[in-house]
Amino acid sequence: MKNLKLVGPIKQLLTLDGLPLKGALRDSQLEILENAGILIKGGKILEVGKFETLNQKINPDTTQLIELEGDFVALPGFIDCHTHICFSGSRARDFALRNSGVSYLQIAKAGGGIWDTVTQTRETPQSKLAKLTADRANRHLSEGITTIEVKSGYGLSIPEEVKMLGSIISAQQKTKADLIPTCLAAHTLPRDFEGDREAYLEELSTKLLPILKKERLTNRIDAFIEKGAFTAKEIEPYFQKAKSMGFDITVHADQFSRGGLAVAVKFGAKSADHLEVSGRNEIKLLAASDVVAVALPGASLGLGVSFTPARKILDQGGALAIASDWNPGSAPMGDLLAQASILATMQNLSTAEVFAGITFRAAEALGLHDRGKIKTGLLADFSLFPTADYREILYNQGKLKPVQVWKNGLMASRNKTKLYPNP
Ligand code: NIG
Ligand code: FE
């Protein structure tokens, strides 16, 4: 019985090990193992080292050898720590309107925006919603993303939020990527709620949070702190209650106006996401805390607004993750690698900072400590890119896809990559 696997040789294996959680990184800090191998046992990494050494050490009776031909770069499985991939319908109409000059908030006020997706998602049965979520997760998996956070927030009533979280949980049966559900019932005040924003949040506190606990639907609570959504003052009692019940907190903060990041720090949130308009004081506050900043370049590209000040956050000593925010409204592209490489160009990020932002720093934003690096004892989640030089990956701006994606020690996706050959 062969219960071990040895994968290699790998031209360059980037472990992402030995790097700090916070602050700027130089590419020279990257640990790069050449002609490496990964020894896998039961879904976890048993050993990483020189392929030849590992190959001589193994017992062929108990180890399956997966010998690679050609040049490959191995990276830890990517972690997308902020998505909204559980939804129905398209908002192509909103997109065209926005490009013609109508703002995101104006569209929302006129009945488009998030409410449009809520209407379509409510009309979709749970099984169909699970299928849509799994299909998107599998596209992500084939692009090297092995862990995907997925938010609710298009249900906006107790039963519909429960339905969405149920869809995310059942989508897990249809994908090998790990799905991490988050409750975003505080996305916006539903149009059909009879009462004000405070009354809605009170209903979430007293009725929804106990159901989430009892039915184990999620241990993460998110809220959109923004004009037209919820104010910091309105959200605080809701977060207070969620914290006292043991939920982790994450916040959609400082996207169009400031205020959300301070709440994230006050409540010791796992992450504060967006931060496009955060200023000097907010960044200082963030850097002095354990909150991970999550840049969402896909939302900046989708809305035509400025990018999260990632460079400043890192230089001030903050922890920076990068996520896709894949959603039907502000970030329809859903290509994490393309967006991360664009952010690198726009914000002068090193390759090490980008790779950290979509691996172990993103894992920290989700409170996961068993992944994000290629290291003994961690999950055997990694991708192989068809190149001999790790710098080709961001240089190709998302067009260089992994040829193999491994999740929990199994090959979960295999692709043929066709690139126009570079000279
Ligand atoms: O992260 N900012 C609020 N929520 C989402 C967008 C949701 C939508 O437009 O459907 C975001 O960008
Ligand atoms: Fe979002």
Question: How are the secondary structure elements laid out?
Answer:
Elements: E1 4-14, E2 32-41, E3 44-50, H1 51-57, E4 63-67, E5 73-76, E6 78-80, H2 92-99, H3 104-109, H4 114-122, H5 126-142, E7 145-151, H6 158-171, E8 178-186, H7 197-214, E9 220-224, H8 232-244, E10 248-253, H9 260-266, E11 271-274, H10 280-287, E12 292-295, H11 297-303, H12 310-315, E13 319-322, H13 336-347, H14 351-357, H15 360-365, E14 382-385, H16 391-395, E15 404-407, E16 410-414
Parallel strand pairs: 1-4, 1-5, 6-7, 7-8, 8-9, 9-10, 10-11, 11-12, 12-13
Antiparallel strand pairs: 1-2, 2-3, 5-14, 14-15, 15-16
The chain binds N-(iminomethyl)-L-glutamic acid and fe (iii) ion (FE).
Residues 84, 113-114, 117, 224, 252, 255, 299, 325, 327-331 line the site of N-(iminomethyl)-L-glutamic acid.
